Structure to design on (792 residues):
C-alpha cells in the first residue's frame, strides 16, 4: 500500500548528491559533524533560559495535587497550611456510600509567578464497610485526566500550549498515625497508583506520635512499601544543585506532618500552631514535625520535576498502553516499521466492517421483533373477535329470553283483558237481567 | 459522561473574583515558595540544553557564511572559495547542513546551520525554491512521525528550521521576482527574517528608501515576515514587535576581522575611506539583528515554529491522509460498551 508518507521518503529527488547527513540512512557521518566550537566573544544566547522562563511566567504554571486519605485525617487543613490560604472546605460526613473525588481549582500568585492549583480530595475514603472498590474512583479520575490530554494531543486542530493541564502531578497519601504499620487498604491503593502518579506518603496528625515511636513507624512503613513493591516518588538525584538536599530528604520519608491554620503567640511572634494544655505544637518548627521539609520538597525544590515525571513517565506509559490497546504498533508482524497511516486504515476498515455487521444484526433483530409483535397483535385481535362473538351471542340469548318473557307477559295481559271484558260483559248482562226483573215486578 | 462519573467528580471551576486567592509579597509568615519553580525550570533547561536550526538563503557572494560566523563569533560555516566554472553550473540547489555545539556561561546550544549554495545562481531560476520547501517540510514530517510513535523518545530531536534568513542584494530598487516568489512560498511555512546584505554600498538615505520600498512590496504581495503581526499575544509584545517591524529588513554588514578603532578592537571592514564598524548601530544594523535573533527572540522563534508552523503542517497532513484519531477513539468506546443502550430503546415498540 503506497501511502503518502512512503512516497515522500522514496522520491527524495531534489538533489543527486547527498542532501544533508541527518536524512541519510548511514548515521556514521553524524557524530563527526557535531563538534564543539569555542566562541571568540560574547554572543548572547546565555539569556535563553531567561527567555524561556519569561515566557512561562506570562503563561502561568499549573499544578495538580491529589490528596488521598480517610475522612477527618486532615487533608484540607494540610492544603490550607501548605498554601497559606483558606480554601473553602466543609467537613464531609462519614456516611458516603461510595468514594467520591472533589476537585477545586484556584489561582494563586506569589510576586510575579501565577499558579493555577487544583486540589483533588477524596471524600468518603475508608468509610465504607466493604473497601474493595475504594481505589477504583481514584484510578478512574487519574485515567480520565490522561485521557483528555491524549484526546487533545491527537486532535487535528489542537492547542496544546493553551491547554489547561489537569493531569495529577503529585499524590499525597495520608497514613493514619496508628504507630504500628500500614493498613491493607493503604497498601492496595498505593500499589494500584504507583505506576500512574507520583506518590508521596505522609503521616498525618503526627502530633499524636512520640519521637521514638515515629522513628520506628517510619522504618516500618518504608520496609513494608519496599517489600510490597510499591514505587513511591523518589526525589531526583541527578542535578548536582539539589542532589544533596534530596538525598537527605529521601531518608526522611514519609514526612510526619501537622497542619494548622490557627495562629498562636509563641515568644513574641505569631506562629501557626496547635495549642494543647500540655504545650504548643508549632507547624513550622522542624523539631516538632516535618511540615517545612514537605513544603521544601513539594514546592520549592521539586515542583518542576514532579510535573516532568508526570508528563514523561506516567503519561507516556498511559499513552503507550492506550494506543497499543487500540491496536497501534510501531512495528508490523515482520518487525518492519509500520506507518501510522497503514495501521489507521486497517483499523478503520475493521471498524467499518464491524459497524456493518452490527447494523445488519440490528436490522435482523428489528425485523424479528416486528414479526413477533405482529403475531402478538394478530393473536390479540383474534381473541378480541372471539370475545366479541361470545358477547354478541350472550346478548342475543338474553334478548331472546326477554322477548319470550315479553310474549308471555303480553299473553297474560291479553288473557287478562279478555277475562276482564268477559267479566264486564257478564256484569253488564247481570245488571240488565236484574233491571228486567225489576221492571217485571213493577208491572 | 455517564451517570456514574457525574456522581464521582464534582468540579468547581475557578471563577475569577469568587475563588481567587492572591498572596502578595513574600513576607516570612506568608511564605509558600512558588517562586522557586522558576529556578527549577531554569536549571532543568540548562541541563537539557537547547537546539537551534537556522537556514541562510541567498545568492552566492552575498556574505551568508560570513554573517553566520559573525553572529555566532566562531567559524561555524566554511566560506566557499569562488567556485570555478563547472561548479557554478550545477543543476539544482544543494542544501548543506553543519551542526555545532556551542556553550556560553553554562548554557549549551546545538546550533545547526543550513546553507543553500546555488540558490538563484543558475540562468534559469524557476523553481529553485523547491528543494528548500521540500527540506523544510521533510523536517516537519520527521518530527511528526516521531511524535506519532507509540514508544516515543523522551526528547524528540528537533531538526525543524526555526529561522530562515533571506539575503536581499543591496540593489537599492525593489524586490526582485525571485525574492517575491521565494518569500511568498516560504513565508507560509517558516519564519523568515529578510536582511539587506552588504549594506555598506548604500548611504543612509538610500538605505531608508530601499527599506521603505521593500516594506511596501512585502505588504503589496501579502508576505508576512517574522515577527508576524497575527501572533502578537499581548500589547507589550505588540509594541516591541512594532518597533522591530518598522526597521526590517535590517541592513547588515558581516566580517570576522578585527581592527583598532580609538584604541578598541572592533569587528570591522577596513576600506580606504574608513572602517565600517559592524557592531556600531550608527554604521549598520547588525547589532539589531543579533539582538533580535539571539538575545531576545530566540525562544520566541522556536515557539512560533513549534506552535504555529508545525501545527499548520500537522493539520494539513492529518487532513490529507484522513486521519482523525478522535473518530477512532470514539469508535473503540462504542465497540467496547456495545450498543446495549440501543437495544433497550428498540424494545419499546
Amino acid at each position: 500500500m503506497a501511502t503518502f508518507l512512503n512516497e515522500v521518503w522514496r522520491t527524495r529527488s531534489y538533489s543527486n548528491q547527498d542532501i544533508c547527513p541527518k536524512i541519510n540512512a548511514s548515521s556514521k557521518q553524524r557524530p563527526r559533524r557535531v563538534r564543539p566550537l569555542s566562541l571568540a566573544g560574547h554572543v548572547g544566547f546565555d539569556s535563553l533560559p531567561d527567555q524561556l522562563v519569561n515566557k512561562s511566567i506570562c503563561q502561568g504554571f499549573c499544578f495538580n495535587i491529589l490528596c488521598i486519605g480517610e475522612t477527618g485525617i486532615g487533608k484540607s487543613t494540610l492544603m490550607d497550611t501548605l498554601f497559606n490560604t483558606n480554601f473553602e472546605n466543609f467537613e464531609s460526613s462519614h456516611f458516603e456510600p461510595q468514594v467520591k473525588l472533589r476537585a477545586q481549582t484556584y489561582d494563586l500568585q506569589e510576586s510575579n509567578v501565577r499558579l493555577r492549583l487544583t486540589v483533588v480530595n477524596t471524600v468518603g475514603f475508608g468509610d465504607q464497610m466493604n473497601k474493595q472498590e475504594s481505589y477504583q474512583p481514584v484510578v478512574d479520575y487519574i485515567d480520565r485526566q490522561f485521557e483528555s490530554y491524549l484526546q487533545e494531543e491527537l486532535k487535528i486542530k489542537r492547542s496544546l500550549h493553551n491547554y489547561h493541564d489537569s493531569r495529577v502531578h503529585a499524590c499525597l497519601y495520608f497514613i493514619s498515625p496508628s504507630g504500628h504499620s500500614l493498613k491493607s487498604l493503604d497498601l492496595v491503593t498505593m500499589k494500584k497508583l504507583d505506576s500512574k502518579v507520583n506518590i508521596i506518603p505522609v503521616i498525618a496528625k503526627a502530633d499524636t506520635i512520640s519521637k521514638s515511636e515515629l522513628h520506628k513507624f517510619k522504618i516500618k512503613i518504608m520496609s513494608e512499601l519496599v517489600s510490597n513493591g510499591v514505587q513511591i516518588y523518589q526525589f531526583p538525584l541527578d542535578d548536582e544543585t539539589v542532589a544533596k538536599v534530596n538525598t537527605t530528604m529521601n531518608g526522611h520519608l514519609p514526612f510526619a506532618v501537622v497542619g494548622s491554620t490557627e495562629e498562636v503567640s509563641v515568644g513574641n511572634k505569631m506562629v501557626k500552631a496547635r495549642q494543647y494544655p500540655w504545650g504548643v505544637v508549632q507547624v513550622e518548627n522542624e523539631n516538632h514535625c516535618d511540615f517545612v521539609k514537605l513544603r521544601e520538597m513539594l514546592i520549592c525544590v521539586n515542583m518542576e520535576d514532579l510535573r516532568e515525571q508526570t508528563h514523561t513517565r506516567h503519561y507516556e506509559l498511559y499513552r503507550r498502553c492506550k494506543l497499543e490497546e487500540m491496536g497501534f504498533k510501531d512495528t508490523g508482524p515482520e518487525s518492519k516499521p509500520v506507518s501510522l497511516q497503514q495501521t489507521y486504515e486497517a483499523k478503520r476498515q475493521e471498524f467499518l466492517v464491524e459497524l456493518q455487521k452490527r447494523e445488519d444484526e440490528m436490522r435482523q433483530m428489528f425485523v424479528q421483533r416486528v414479526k413477533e409483535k405482529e403475531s402478538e397483535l394478530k393473536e390479540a385481535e383474534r381473541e378480541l373477535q372471539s370475545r366479541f362473538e361470545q358477547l354478541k351471542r350472550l346478548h342475543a340469548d338474553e334478548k331472546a329470553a326477554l322477548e319470550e318473557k315479553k310474549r308471555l307477559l303480553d299473553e297474560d295481559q291479553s288473557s287478562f283483558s279478555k277475562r276482564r271484558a268477559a267479566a264486564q260483559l257478564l256484569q253488564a248482562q247481570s245488571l240488565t237481567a236484574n233491571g228486567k226483573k225489576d221492571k217485571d215486578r213493577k208491572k | 459522561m455517564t451517570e456514574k462519573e457525574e456522581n464521582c467528580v464534582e468540579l468547581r471551576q475557578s471563577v475569577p473574583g469568587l475563588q481567587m486567592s492572591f498572596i502578595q509579597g513574600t513576607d516570612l509568615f506568608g511564605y509558600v515558595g512558588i517562586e522557586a519553580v522558576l529556578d527549577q525550570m531554569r536549571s532543568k533547561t540548562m541541563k537539557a540544553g537547547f537546539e537551534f536550526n537556522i537556514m541562510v538563503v541567498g545568492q552566492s557572494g552575498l556574505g551568508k557564511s560570513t554573517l553566520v560566523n559573525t553572529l555566532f563569533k566562531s567559524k561555524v560555516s566554511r566560506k566557499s572559495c569562488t567556485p570555478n566554472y563547472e561548479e557554478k553550473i550545477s543543476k539544482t540547489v544543494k542544501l548543506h547542513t553543519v551542526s555545532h555545539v556551542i556553550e556560553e556561561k553554562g548554557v549549551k546550544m546545538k546550533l545547526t546551520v543550513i546553507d543553500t549554495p546555488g540558490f538563484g545562481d543558475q540562468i534559469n531560476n524557476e523553481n529553485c525554491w523547491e528543494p528548500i520547501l521540500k527540506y523544510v517540510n521533510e523536517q516537519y514530517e520527521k518530527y511528526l512521525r516521531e511524535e506519532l510513535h507509540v514508544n516515543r523518545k523522551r526528547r524528540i530531536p528537533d531538526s525543524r528550521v526555526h529561522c530562515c534568513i533571506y539575503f536581499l542584494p543591496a540593489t537599492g530598487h525593489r524586490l526582485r521576482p525571485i525574492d517575491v516568489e521565494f518569500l511568498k512560498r516560504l513565508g507560509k511555512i517558516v519564519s523568515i527574517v529578510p536582511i539587506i546584505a552588504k549594506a555598506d554600498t548604500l548611504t543612509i538615505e538610500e538605505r531608508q528608501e530601499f527599506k521603505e520600498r521593500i516594506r511596501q512590496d512585502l505588504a503589496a504581495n501579502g508576505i508576512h515576515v517574522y515577527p508576524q503581526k497575527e501572533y502578537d499575544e499581548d500589547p507589550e509584545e505588540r509594541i516591541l514587535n512594532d518597533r522591530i517591524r518598522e526597521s526590517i529588513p535590517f541592513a547588515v554588514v558581516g566580517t570576522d576581522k578585527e581592527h583598532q578603532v580609538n584604541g578598541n578592537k572592533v569587528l570591522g571592514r577596513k576600506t580606504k575611506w574608513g572602517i565600517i564598524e559592524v557592531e556600531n548601530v550608527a554604521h549598520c544594523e547588525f547589532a539589531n539583528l543579533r539582538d533580535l535573533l539571539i538575545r531576545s527572540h530566540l525562544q520566541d522563534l522556536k515557539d512560533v515554529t513549534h506552535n504555529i508552523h508545525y501545527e499548520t503542517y500537522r493539520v494539513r497532513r492529518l487532513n490529507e491522509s484522513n486521519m482523525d484519531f478522535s473518530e477512532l477513539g470514539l469508535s473503540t468506546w462504542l465497540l467496547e460498551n456495545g450498543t446495549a443502550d440501543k437495544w433497550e430503546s428498540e424494545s419499546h415498540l
In short: The CA atoms of residues 123 and 195 of chain B lie 24 Å apart.
